[in-house]
Amino acid sequence: MTIYRKIPLLLLAVSLCSQAALVPDRTRVIFNSKDKATSVKISNQSPKDPYLAYSWIEDEKGNKTDEYLTALPPIQRVNPSAATQVRIIKQDTVAQLPTDRETLFYYNLREIPPTPEKKSDAAILQIAVQSRIKLFWRPAALRKKTGERVELQLKVSQQGGDLLLENPTPYYLTIAYLGKDKKGVLPGFQSTMIAPFSRASTHTSGYSGNTFYLGYMDDYGALRMTTLSCQGNCTLTPVEATK
C-alpha cells in the first residue's frame, strides 16, 4: 500500500529534504516568455533505492493541464544518489496568456518508490512524497532587472487589527513573514500570495503596535525582510542582510 502526501515548498526546503527521496533544486520557477523552455533539476537523496519521478503541470486552480506548458519527460527513473532534469516546454497557446501580468501555474513532482522485497506476510506501508512548487509565466512586457525589488511597491495600510495589502504590480507577491520582531511570526499568520493588481488582508492577532517586520519571497526563493512603520498608511523599508 502506498500513501501519497503533498508537501508545499516554501520555507521548508530543509525539512522536505529529510522526508523526500526526490528533491527539486528550487522552491519556485520563473519562466520568461522569451525562453523556449526552462529546467528543474531533480536529485535522488536515497543512497540505495532508485525512484520514478512523475512530473506534471497544474493551473492556478489546481487542474492538471498541458495546454500551455508541458513537463518532459512526464515519468523517468532516477538512480540512487543521482540527478536528472525535467524540462518545462511552452506550447504555442501561451500567446493566449495575459501579456500585462504574470500567470500562475504549479509544477508537481511525485516520487514513486521501488516495490519492497516481501520477506514476510506483514503488511508494508510506503510513503511517497509529492512536491508542488509555484511556476510563474512572465511575459516579455515585464522586464524585471536582476535584483530589482518590485515587492517594495506593495501598499500597506493598518486598520484596527488588520493590515490591508495592495499589490499594484504585474507580479505575484508572496508575503511569507509578519511579526513584531525577527524572533517569530505573529500567532496564526499564514503565508499569503497576492495576485497582480489585487488585494489581501492579514490579521495582526491582538498585537496593537504599529511597527512590524514583513518578509517576502524573491525570484530565487530567498526571504527578504522589510520593516513596516504604520500611521494609517505604512512605510516599507528594506532590511539589509548582515554578513
Describe this structure in words.
The chain folds into two domains: 2-138, Immunoglobulins (Immunoglobulin-like), CATH 2.60.40; 150-238, Immunoglobulin-like (Sandwich), CATH 2.60.40. It contains one helix and 18 strands. The protein has one helix at 13-19; strands at 2-8, 22-24, 28-32, 37-44, 51-59, 69-72, 75-78, 83-90, 103-112, 126-138, 155-159, 162-167, 173-179, 192-194, 198-203, 211-217, 223-231, 233-238. The strands form four sheets. Strands 1, 3, 5, 7, 9 and 10 form a six-stranded mixed beta sheet that branches. A five-stranded antiparallel beta sheet has the order 14-13-16-17-18, with no helix packed on it. The radius of gyration is 20 Å and the shape is globular.
What key attributes describe this structure?
mainly beta; 1 helix; Immunoglobulin-like; 6-stranded mixed sheet
Kindly summarize this structure in a few lines.
The protein is an all-beta fold and 243 residues long. Helix content is 3%, strand content 49%.
Look up the CATH topology of the largest domain: Immunoglobulin-like
> Rg from C-alpha positions?
20 Å
Determine the CATH superfamily of the largest domain. Answer: Immunoglobulins
Report mean pLDDT, rounded to a whole number.
89
Percent helix among the residues?
Answer: under 10%
Based on the coordinates given, report the CATH architecture of the largest domain: Sandwich
Main sheet characteristics: 6 strands, mixed
Which percent band covers the strand fraction? over 45%
Low-confidence regions: 6-18
User: Order of helices and strands, N to C?
Assistant: EHEEEEEEEEEEEEEEEEE
Q: What would you call the shape? A: globular
Query: Given this structure, which CATH class of the largest domain is correct?
Result: Mainly Beta
